[in-house]
Amino acid sequence: MAVDMTMPILIVDDYKTMLRIIRNLLKQLGFENVDDAADGSQALQKMREKPYGLVISDWNMEPMTGLQLLREVRSDKKLAAVPFIMITAESKTENVVAAKEAGVNNYIVKPFNAATLKSKLVSVLGNF
Amino acid sequence: MPAAAHDASLSARLDAARREAEAPLTRDDVAAIIAEVVGSMEGDISALDLKIYQELEALARYIQSAKAELAAIRADRIGQEYILSATDELDAVVNATEEATGQILDAAETIQTIAESLDEPTRDRIVELVTGIFEASNFQDITGQRITKVVTTLKHIEVKIDAMLNALGQEVERVRSQADAAETKGALADDKSLLNGPQLPGNANDQAEIDRLLASFD
Asked: Which of A57, A118, B21, B204 fits a disulfide with B199 by CB distance 3.0 to 4.6 angstroms?
């Protein structure tokens, strides 16, 4: 099935610069319907107000981290099926394992490049 | 003096000494307590009593010496001056790089917008180059997080130093007063003291202020 390039994507990061970088890279890949949130709790609120086709989230944020957001999403029947990619500087094995156990679809370590982002999107959404 | 009354008196004296000094007992405190204990003893002092007395006195001297040495290194300045300054400088690094990265992204986004109106080969080449700018801008997030970790470590060290200074109590205050007075006397600026490096925002003169300052000499 073809990827819906107009689907809304939610990006979550407490660094405005990183939000801009991800937004621009997504735009170059053809995804322009992008919203953002500054932490997990803000993201959760937005997800309950609007259906998103994908969430791309940082890990280290306050008051709600990306991992907590992921767990909240996976435990909410209405949100549980939303694909979730973690983009973070947390690169220890234990972090990746914890994210996987919580139900993450893919994991990108910062700093990352456009090719890595695209390959992870393809692996989660399919070819586009 | 009955033994029970004597114990109560000694306990009261020890409790009072502890309350008076947040730091461990000073040599004088220990000596005074020992003198009272020895003075209250009935009969001859045994060789063992004298040995214990000497050991306690040596211990008090050692504690006093250690406190003086720790106070002399001016550990109070590490927390109040150097760490505070270091964390401010690091915060300034994070803010400055974030601001500069924002400006770089502004320019890259504008270039990308302009490229959309150009022919396809040119546009593709420009988008490729702009992508490189976006990718390279990742550094700001990573350096920001690394610096935040360093700041956290410095603050942890500061807390530990504060705890040590509290334990040292009045000894530190005495040495600090003496050292501050000595520094005030020798505060004439030499060339080395003028090498302060970049100033934090708010502390620095901007170009207009410098121009005004220079003009004031005319």
From this structure: B204
